[in-house]
Amino acid sequence: LLFPVSNLCGKCKPRDTDLLQPSLNFLYCSLHQTTPCSQQRAVAVLLSNVSLLELLQKVLECTWLRSPPPAYLSSEDALLCSGWLLVASLLLYQHRYNTEVHQTLSLDLTKVLNAVIFKKKKPILLLVSIMQFLRAILRQNFSSSLLVIVGQNTAQGATQPQPSSLQDAALHPLTSQQVFSLVVSLQNLLVHKDLLLSQAVLACLETLVEYLYVKNQDVALHVASQPWHRFLLFTLLSGGQKSFLQPEVLRLMTLFLRYQSSNIISQKEISQILQEATEANLAELPEATSRALHLFLCQV
């Protein structure tokens, strides 16, 4: 089915939402709900379809052309979500299996970052989808053979980037200003306390700090130890008797422990989490909480 569905997508235009939406979702599910052997073949089929990749390029570019969004998830927004999630998956599996690429995708990094930094009432699912993509390119150090990154730091014709500082040179193709703006936006999104959004934000924040730690440890430790993080924790802990056992709180605590942000998390908070964990019925904890608690205890 991958052949006819992917070929059908390649013949569509981005405005054919009624046909493209289920088709892209089918391709996405085919990548994720199959055996590793079939998954490798599925990736090869999709990446060999030049028309499909050209269509995905056009779909993603529609993100920057959106008119003022409605209060609900429109069919156009839903198609954008499917496009970003499918491309993020293709990036992940192309890297995993080192699959041959027949057509590259080109994206402006500044526009991708600004889509998260300047949210402008975007639907939550669209923000989540873009953050999944951003996480994928961060994990691959912006070096995927499927993707060509363009933007203010990658001007055509320049043999070497011309960074404004040594710090920006280390973070290339990101700039320190983009990094700090993105971190503040991720912090603000966490305050919404939406489970799906929180999981995507935390995954993106974790991957971003890992990327920074490899590029420039000083910047990574600076980001992890921002005093605003402590205010964010107090905001997340504002309700519930067992509020330390929220998955987003546990994952944030784990992140601060990993990068030794002693000004954000103290021995007192660690002791409180351990105390709440001993009093809780671990078998009844939600899966997300159990997984986050396990990672926290391993980090401790």
TrEMBL record:
<protein>
    <submittedName>
        <fullName>MEI1 protein</fullName>
    </submittedName>
</protein>
<dbReference type="GO" id="GO:0007127">
    <property type="term" value="P:meiosis I"/>
</dbReference>
<dbReference type="InterPro" id="IPR052133">
    <property type="entry name" value="Immune_Signaling-Apoptosis_Reg"/>
</dbReference>
